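[Meeting: bench + compute handoff]

Bench side (C.D.) handed over the final construct sequence. Compute side (W.E.) agreed to return the predicted structure before the next meeting so the bench team could plan truncations. Sequence as handed over:
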Amino acid sequence: MLLFILITVLSVTAVLIRLTFLRFKQTVSAGEKTPAPFSAVAFGKWLAGRMTTAFSKEALDKGRDIYRAWTKDHYPGPLKWIFIGFGASLTYLVASGFFFALFIGRGMFGLPLLGHVMFGGLFAASLALLLIWRGRAYRPDKDEATVFESFVCPVFKNLSGTRLRNILFWTFAAFGLVQVATALGSMLPVFTFETQQALVTVHRYSALALLLTAIVFIDLAVIPRRRP
């Protein structure tokens, strides 16, 4: 359990720092004034400024505009309920699952566990609908050019932003299916106690991989970037 906590904290922190640093570099390239471009001090000041305004009215309005634009373009009309159901279930599952995994030694119990099971059903249903509706937009052969290809994947220079987005989408879908399968398997009486424990462990690490994939996908595909 301690190992999972350590891996979770380090991996999520590393991914968030990496993504925010890429945002910082792109902001500097776009011409925004900073104390010392690409230095640790400049990055720290930039990050502190962003954090202090994260819950301001301007930031909340911007978040609402991003949500409206995303649903209008990708989930028009009543289809937005697929996105709402998926987003609500994912948010609750991540919040409740990682809170109890990181801070409550005995694990999840009581009403939070009941809510976790109920939102798990909503997640499974909304994920299936999401794959049916949006899967064609992320087919492997689709590789249009994007304005942020130059810095979206600094490790693999020949991997375009669109292709990376497609990979992330199907990776998320795969881990989502693992989540559903392991959750169901851990509740069925046909498996031994040792097998159910193994399924719970797989469920936890799969949830971490799903969270990291979701963070990168949202940063890449949902949140708009400044044009350099």
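W.E. noted at the follow-up: The CA atoms of residues 48 and 54 lie 10 Å apart. C.D. will use this when planning the next construct.
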